[in-house]
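Listing 4. Sequential folding, example run.
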Amino acid sequence: MFHFGANATAMLSTLTIKKITRSSSSSLHSLRSMQLIVISVLLYCSALGSLTQAQELQSQNKMSSSDNSYQVVQLPGPRTKLGEGPVWDIETQSLYYVDIDTPAVLRYDYADNRTYSAKLEGANSISFIVLVAGQPEHFVVGENNRVTLIRWDGRSEEAQHVRVLADLGNSQSHVRFNDGKVDPSGRLYAGTMQLESLGDLLAQKEGQFFRYTNETMVLQKKNISVSNGLTWDEPVNPLRMYYIDSAALDVKSFDVDENGDLKNETVFFDLRVNGTNPGYVADGMTSDADGNLYIATWGGSKVMKVDKRSQQLVQEIKIPAEQVTSVAFGGPQLDELFVTTSSKGDKPAPAGELFKVTGLGVKGKPMHKMIL
């Protein structure tokens, strides 16, 4: 906006009067023309400023009304060190998730409004949990640097190993699995990251991203810092995957071929603000029935909604915990967004709690089960 001060206006008027008294009629005509031009410029600037203010106010009101339309509720359950990997199970009306560092598998029972937790003997970390098609009370988890089939009734305090599906072996003992999820065809995708005890996670690229098939992890991408959130553009294009490497500060998109291998990597959304680090990184991710993305932000105290078509940020869902780790739609109507968080670094409560967001006005999609 442009502003002309009172002194400047007074000087302009005085200068004009002096010139009029000294000028001929032709000069007077010229000065009047100049005055009209100055007045026109002032009116234009004033109108431009008002338009800019109106646009800013409209934008703020749109974001404000969007932000005020939802409610965030803390759910009962154990406070996690590193809550992650929420998966909604329609059959049991439950949300399964993990605490990577405890480690534990957890189940939030929607009807009972209660959370159950179980340990897994020998596990140093449990990084994700997915449902298994045709096998109730069986789950596939990322355990240390291997993928394991376990059995859990959802209530007892101990889960049992069934068998190891894939093991990255001693050459990858310096990494652990992180996020993993099942695609619309029932295939498991999961990635790794360097162990936290070995140094700065965002400064190294020891992680890899895999597709599971026939007890083998098929490499899809390497030189990854922290392999994280993933989701698919369904039902429109189930062969389009979105993927996060946290250190990259963006969301990538890939095409998936008939074998399940990734190709045509592009940047879908950049987290940088005017080219600079925003002060947080993307973590877990999901998408709604319209294909819009919901991105958890580690260090950002929010979930970001990114419009699929414009590829722009359209909503920020504030969460009362700094380290927001992952998200998943669930509930009887699939219209509630569950949010996991972390208390790592001695973050104050309610960090580490499980939250539910309602009133978003959107629905999610049923989560897929792994076909073994």
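-- end of first protein; second protein begins --
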Amino acid sequence: MNINCSYVPNFDGYSYFSLRQPWKPRERERGEERRNELRLLAKGFVMEEMEMDSIECVSSSMDGIEDEEIQSSVSSHQQYSSAKPHPNVVPSGIAPTSVHELLECPVCTNSMYPPIHQCHNGHTLCSTCKTRVHNRCPTCRQELGDIRCLALEKVAESLELPCKYYSLGCPEIFPYYSKLKHATLCNFRPYNCPYAGSECSVTEDIPYLVTHLRDDHKVDMHTGCTFNHRYVKSNPREVENATWMLTVFHCFGQYFCLHFEAFQLGMAPVYMAFLRFMGDESEARSYSYSLEVGGNGRKLLWEGTPRSIRDSHRKVRDSHDGLIIQRNMALFFSGGDRKELKLRVTGRIWKEQQNPDGGVCIPNLCS
């Protein structure tokens, strides 16, 4: 027996099918139970793919009525199923969107991780922002309470998403809850600005940072792998966190940052020079550099591997990974009456290359 059904929008935002012929009391009761099941399915499941598919509407047998197909053309291109949820269907009344957007906190716009909170009206937000909004839903202003959105947390567990930095070249795909840990270590993540003279918050790729250092911080830019710098200070007794202008070198197709500053090492005032590589640590290990300071027939020499700018300026400085000169020695190298710092620091950068015959590294010096 063919039964006609029509599409009827309901007041609560969901849509159901209404049979045109009257039901018996028992049939009406079963129909109400079915509608309640649909409401729970619509509110409890979030589908991964949100595009509407063409599917069939099948009625359940009711008191002797045989199972038959009920064809209902809601529109010329869309059909809905009341038999079971389809993995590519969004309940009627819910605008098509992506699962990524459903897992996005409406306050900070970051991806939400357990515990995911929701208000009595179903609006969600992350646990960090819950305290920021003073336990009030930012969407409907209702009190949040301590309601967890377990359904959304379960959906997140089943997802595999591309890395946060896929647009920067990372090809990796991770389970949702592993993605956050990977993002903190991803080789494609942006770099922090290496400028040490101020707390600069810029994070970008290397080409952008080079332009930023040149145009915004006005640093000295040099081409070549050798340098000869003179650092002057009229009152060398004042060494409390003094920082000289950063110098950027371009050689071997890479960029290097030369730092020079004064600070207290314990109770002793010292000067320190060190080099940082604008790239990852794995690339930095392919290069070496030397720093030399001297005067009055004496000299100090330092050789090492440049540190990646992944390590902050403060971390490198506090690890003492560079040429360290005590103030008295620096004034001795300056000559004269030792009342003014005039320190000349020379150095070079080279790339270690594998010797195909001997199997050892030999320096490749730029011209």
